[in-house]
Amino acid sequence: MSDLLLRDGLVLDVRSGDYFEASLRCVDGRIVEIGPGLTASAEARIVDLAGAVVLPGLIDAHVHVTAATAALGDLPTWSPSYVAAHAARIMGSMLRRGFTTVRDAAGADYGLADAQAEGLIVGPRLAFCGKALSQTGGHGDLRGRGASAADDHPCCAGLGQVADGVDAVRVAARNELRKGAHHIKVMASGGVASPTDRIDSTQYSMEELRAVVEEAEAANRYVAAHAYTARAVNRALEAGVRSIEHGNLIDERSVELFLAHDAYLVPTLVTYWALKQEGKAHGLPADSHRKVDEVLEGGLRALERAARGGVKLVYGSDLLGGMHRYQSHEFLLRGEVQQPIDVIRSATVTAAELLGLAGEIGEVEVGARADLVVLDRDPLTEVGVLAATRHIVHVVQEGRIVSDGKAA
């Protein structure tokens, strides 16, 4: 039995936005007691927090742990074992930043999730979708114009697979669900990293989108859709997609549809900021780099519009290659528009709801998993505290202190 007692912390109730003084006892990966003056067994590890701030473990709902390069078209040529080694390194750094759970938005599979769960990889708990579904010439089709054959062998590394037509997308979705996917990802618009599509294109017919949603719902799972423009976002929401990834160019109709369908928006502002700064140095092709400006400027405006309209917002980073180190910089960018507590909620309780893990993660409550981040400064005063690992005193995952947050 593992037993951890954290004494005298300042615990953040992320729902109310208030702090309360308490000790926390964690046994076998769960929080079992919260309150003053707690005692533990003789075998327990006892840590005096001396008033340090305690938050739930952070959740990043849009990562690509296998994206060790921004040249995504190169990944299928890499050895899967080599990609897995990179993924282990990337995941370890995420955990040291305080992210105890992440949702992979294409690329990771059951092998990485199982390896983390079994302790073979030290990193965040991993919700995966396998490979994203893309139409020919869509955001997940990374062939250049001169390429003809598509090699979507399941053993090859890569983020996407091409499937055209209702029958084909049903088979592709069912196959990912067969392998244990927590959600299905579809490419519903053009994107930055894909070589042959336009940002403002819509992708997949309504019939194809609805077919994927039907397959996911039949398995008690949901669909996440990559989409930028209002036209693409609105089509996806009307088809029943549960979460929109990016959404940089949404309009007021989009906000109405988010509310009507009880859907989530996962902005990923930091990836465009990083791609603008360093994308070329990390392998982003020139054609893709030229697309960055189209979505960068709209991102903050879209976030402000969605927040003002009451859309459920979830934290996402979507970084590639050597830019993964900027994962926590998303807190700073969102802090330009949102209040600190709202940014924190997006990376805790709201993200947990999207993942179907409300009550399990994202809150400091008795019965929840003992995933915690201990800070030496107050993030409600300055949300940028979460962007600097020097302020992380401890990261606790499943009731074990796994990191002091340094060197992430």
From TrEMBL:
<dbReference type="GO" id="GO:0016810">
    <property type="term" value="F:hydrolase activity, acting on carbon-nitrogen (but not peptide) bonds"/>
</dbReference>
<dbReference type="InterPro" id="IPR057744">
    <property type="entry name" value="OTAase-like"/>
</dbReference>
<feature type="domain" description="Amidohydrolase-related">
    <location>
        <begin position="53"/>
        <end position="402"/>
    </location>
</feature>
<dbReference type="InterPro" id="IPR051781">
    <property type="entry name" value="Metallo-dep_Hydrolase"/>
</dbReference>
<protein>
    <submittedName>
        <fullName>Imidazolonepropionase-like amidohydrolase</fullName>
    </submittedName>
</protein>
<keyword id="KW-0378">Hydrolase</keyword>
<dbReference type="InterPro" id="IPR006680">
    <property type="entry name" value="Amidohydro-rel"/>
</dbReference>
<dbReference type="InterPro" id="IPR011059">
    <property type="entry name" value="Metal-dep_hydrolase_composite"/>
</dbReference>
<dbReference type="InterPro" id="IPR032466">
    <property type="entry name" value="Metal_Hydrolase"/>
</dbReference>
<dbReference type="Pfam" id="PF01979">
    <property type="entry name" value="Amidohydro_1"/>
</dbReference>
